[in-house]
């Protein structure tokens, strides 16, 4: 895996992960939910990341052949997923992991290099548990509310795609292009806030994601 690791950078991350309490209550609720229904003996696919995953309520119904864990938590950034990788991914020993992060990072003015380095640590932690786990990075999506940041999203997606092309265990699920028409965003895919998707938006996501599930 071709990733650059920076000792100081990572040390800072691990210190933050030890002290962070962001999303603790939400993560606990997710764990409580799945502790009662998750069957360890069955192959598991984890979908995780920020609110675009959390609000995808019918993933299990869309993929009934598989045991799906939706551990998305709204408002999260890559550093938050790193802090809770054990709780939201590793404890379920998944065969595949779909990750949607980077959207809120860009909005929060995080540098692309920082975002990519955090992704690399998350990926490494997953691989340490099971090197055969397939990891699918879902591209940060376009949205009406954040369209003014489109150039930053495009650059991040190019980097994420390149990372996936350099590692056979990684895949890049491009949901960006399908949400555009003639380089303009399809506004009918969003609810009133202009950020989150409606059913039509998730139907488009399904048309892309299904190719990486089966």
UniProtKB/TrEMBL annotation:
SUPFAM superfamilies: SGNH hydrolase (SSF52266). This is GDSL-type esterase/lipase family protein. InterPro entries: Ester_Hydrolysis_Enzymes, SGNH_hydro, SGNH_hydro_sf. Pfam families: Lipase_GDSL_2. Residues 54-203 form the SGNH hydrolase-type esterase domain. It comes from the Bacteria. It comes from Mariniflexile soesokkakense. Gene3D superfamilies: SGNH hydrolase.
């Amino acid at each position: 895996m071709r990733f650059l690791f920076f000792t100081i950078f990572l040390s800072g991350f691990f210190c933050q992960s030890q002290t962070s309490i962001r999303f603790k209550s939400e993560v606990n609720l997710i764990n409580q939910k799945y502790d009662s229904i998750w069957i360890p003996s069955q192959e598991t696919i984890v979908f995780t990341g920020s609110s675009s995953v959390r609000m995808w309520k019918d993933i299990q119904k869309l993929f009934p052949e598989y045991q799906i864990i939706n551990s998305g938590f709204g408002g999260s950034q890559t550093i938050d997923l790193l802090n809770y990788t054990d709780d939201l991914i590793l404890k379920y020993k998944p065969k595949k992991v779909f990750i949607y992060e980077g959207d809120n990072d860009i909005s929060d003015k995080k540098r692309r290099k920082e975002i990519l380095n955090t992704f690399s640590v998350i990926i490494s932690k997953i691989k340490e548990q099971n090197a055969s786990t397939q990891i699918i990075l879902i591209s940060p999506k376009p949205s009406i509310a954040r369209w003014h940041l489109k150039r930053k999203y495009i650059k991040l997606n190019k980097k994420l795609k390149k990372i996936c092309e350099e590692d056979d265990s990684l895949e890049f699920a491009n949901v960006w292009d399908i949400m555009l028409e003639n380089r303009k965003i399809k506004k009918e895919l969003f609810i009133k806030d202009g950020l989150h998707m409606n059913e039509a938006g998730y139907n488009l996501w399904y048309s892309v994601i299904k190719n990486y599930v089966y």
